[in-house]
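Weekly sync, protein design subgroup
Attendees: M.S., D.O., the rotation student, P.L. (late)

Item 1: inverse folding check
M.S. brought a backbone from last month's batch and wanted to see whether the design step gives back something sensible before we order anything. D.O. pointed out we never logged the input encoding, so this time it goes straight into the notes. Structure tokens as presented (320 positions):
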């Protein structure tokens, strides 16, 4: 695997992610956290940080505003992510998670993506195009799109990457994802069970393998559908597999999907098979869940888990 694959990330809805760890969470009471973790977050920045941890050279085009935006910018840079900041008028959002040690429950309060103007979005696309022209092979696009951008915004990004011959790793949801898949096909679609069921109009308890194969029929690219501790199913043109790692349930799942994506793309960029890339993604996701704060795991911790990751081939299906 190359020492430093070059990867770009478009961070349209970054945030300052704050995790409070308390002994016990009681509604209506005052709490004094035993620890506080502040991270430059949002799904795309989390994935970018995970990819950096796994050895990639990552440039993140991030739409940031105000003092919180500056905190996020500095935090991302401190973790090794190269930040190309697009200034926006609105203050960057904050997202809060509270872990109760007593119950193990995680309470999450996430602000909506910070609103941006069409002018700011145009600047973000222009900045992204400049980064894509610098020799990157993958573009990470993860999370929701900010208001008042329409559902076609994701499609614009996929079209931009296609013009530069750059593969897109897409992790999104809802109407914007549905519109993007109708207009174009990403090289890699990584979604969780709920997101897959939503975009397909299927019950959320549908067999994971059915969701993965139906998405593959739509995109014709690589598809990975994750299911938390249940593992993930990946499908390519010539192979399919279920990958899982048992016995390592962590208390901090926030950012595990993003860590999976970042490690997955680094491995794919290095020429690994889908199965091998999913094994690395699973190890990174599990390492992430062991620590508070999204994508703050160490590469050595993820690699140490690799021998325990189990991969089972899944029979391919005809197109019918």
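Designed sequence read out in the meeting:
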């Amino acid at each position: 695997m190359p020492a430093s694959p070059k990867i770009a990330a478009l961070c349209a809805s970054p945030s300052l992610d704050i995790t409070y760890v308390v002994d016990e969470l009681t509604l209506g009471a005052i709490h004094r956290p035993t620890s506080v973790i502040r991270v430059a977050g949002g799904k795309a920045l989390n994935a970018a940080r995970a990819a950096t941890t796994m050895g990639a050279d990552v440039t993140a085009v991030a739409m940031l505003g105000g003092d919180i935006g500056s905190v996020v910018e500095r935090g991302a840079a401190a973790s090794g992510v190269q930040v190309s900041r697009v200034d926006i008028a609105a203050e960057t959002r904050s997202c809060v998670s509270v872990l109760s040690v007593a119950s193990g429950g995680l309470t999450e309060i996430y602000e909506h993506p910070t609103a941006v103007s069409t002018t700011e979005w145009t600047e973000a696309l222009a900045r992204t195009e400049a980064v894509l022209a610098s020799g990157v092979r993958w573009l990470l696009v993860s999370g929701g799109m900010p208001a008042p951008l329409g559902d076609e915004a994701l499609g614009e990004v996929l079209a931009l990457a296609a013009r530069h011959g750059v593969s897109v790793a897409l992790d999104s949801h809802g109407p914007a994802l549905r519109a993007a898949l109708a207009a174009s096909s990403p090289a890699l679609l990584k979604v969780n069970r709920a997101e897959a069921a939503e975009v397909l109009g299927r019950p959320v308890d549908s067999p994971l393998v059915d969701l993965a194969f139906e998405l593959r029929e739509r995109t014709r690219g690589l598809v990975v559908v994750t299911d938390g501790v249940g593992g993930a199913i990946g499908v390519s043109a010539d192979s399919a597999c279920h990958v899982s790692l048992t016995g390592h349930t962590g208390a901090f799942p926030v950012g595990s999907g993003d860590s999976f994506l970042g490690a997955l793309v680094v491995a794919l960029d290095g020429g690994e098979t889908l199965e091998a890339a999913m094994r690395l993604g699973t190890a990174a996701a599990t390492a992430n869940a062991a620590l508070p704060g999204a994508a703050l795991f160490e590469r050595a911790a993820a690699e140490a888990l690799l021998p325990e990751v189990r991969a089972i081939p899944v029979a391919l299906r005809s197109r019918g």
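Discussion: The CA atoms of residues 70 and 171 lie 25 Å apart. The chain is about 35% helix and 25% strand.
Action: P.L. to compare against the previous round before Friday.
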